[in-house]
Amino acid sequence: MVTAALFLGLMQGPPAETTGRIVTAHQWVERLGRTMGDSIWPGFRPDTMPVAYVVPGQGTLLLSWRGELPQGFLPIAGLAGGGWRSSADRGAASTGTELDGRPTPQVVVNDSAGVASLVGLTTHEAFHVFEAASKREGNRFGRGENSFLVTSYPVFDPQNEAGMALEGRILAAAEQAETKARKRTLARQFLAVRESRQRALGAELADFEQLAELNEGLAEYTLVRVVALAARQRDFPDRTGAARLQTGKLTGLHKLTEDVKLSIRLRYYATGPALGLLLDALEGPSWKTRLITQNLTVQEALAEASGYRTQEEGLRRQAESTFVIAKLRSAADSGVAGLRAYRRAQVDSVLAVPGVQLVVTVEGRALGLCGIDPQNLLQVEPGVLLHTRWLQACAGDAFQATFNTPVVQDRNSQSLRAVVGADSSVTVTTGAQGDVRIESPVVSLHATKAEVSRDGRVLTVKIKS
After folding, report:
1. pTM listed for this prediction
2. CA–CA dist 83, 72 (Å, integer)
3. Which of 98, 180, 241, 399 would bridge 116 by S-S if both were Cys, CB 3.0 to 4.6 A apart?
């Protein structure tokens, strides 16, 4: 599979043994992606992606590149689509990157990484590229978690730590369980323990955990899955490494909270694949499609697959039948449509009042709110608010304004609109370097760097960055 000509083309590259190991692993990823891509994840084709393999302190081996190589890469004799770039980037990480504008998985190759490990790592990073390409507005798949929450996660809370350790033990037992019935029982136990722990943890951190499992956990599931598929092939050269990886994952579940040297985020690299394998056992591959189409987390998918929600669903269906949910939904549809029309009419009425209409926009920053009256704030449509009485707006030191009149706030365009009085009552003062002041009986505005323009009754203040 790897020729001598390839090594001659890498005279300035890594040792031949390292190169051979990388190329062999990459060829296995391509082979499995081409023949078993849907068995890893529906629609996932890692064989269609170029991959950058970073050899620390030496350079980057680029494989499966289509077309002219990116700048800095030299072609490799005997390896179509291969290139080598010498560098000493010791800070590189396994991640997703871009080369010539093309999304590219990047894998750091350590000396200890065998073929099985590299097959798994390549698939993991390729799946992140797939997730990013699959991202859709409103869907959780591909969105990722708020990683900044690791700074406030309660690592010193013994109750939470004990609960998470228990979850790891349950998942390990479920993985080793020999019957589907036993796996289902353990899945329900896991969900009961997890939901109890996450109620105490709070909604924000519970969401972080579930999105981390959806993001890194599923990528790690594809790692485990592809290595298992590879190990089933008679000619796979690293069955020992594959078995070692499987054992390591099981051990990791038993020691989920014990490695204090690692970030808590890495825990979901263990729970995510364990949940995926448990779903495979309970439902087969259909859970993956259902997770996407129903916009579920892995935890929610397991709750459905294990029957954990059966009683809840039965009670809900009974209530929906008793109180005729179809009629209630029809009335709600009509009510929401009427509410939308009424709120739009409210905005039109507010802005149709005679006088100067002040429009405030910001450039290159968010328009903040320093004070609101929640009793007099209405949603008009997604991203559009009507402050019916009073508002204090701000954008750092660059802009402050107080309105004692109705204001329409559009968060999509970062703008404010309000009628601020008759021409005779509105004073506009401009100074050096864009200093602007606007005063009327209902508004007081100061901007330190702005542009002012007038078009008929519309007075526009554009806050500059």
Report:
1. 0.78
2. 9
3. 241
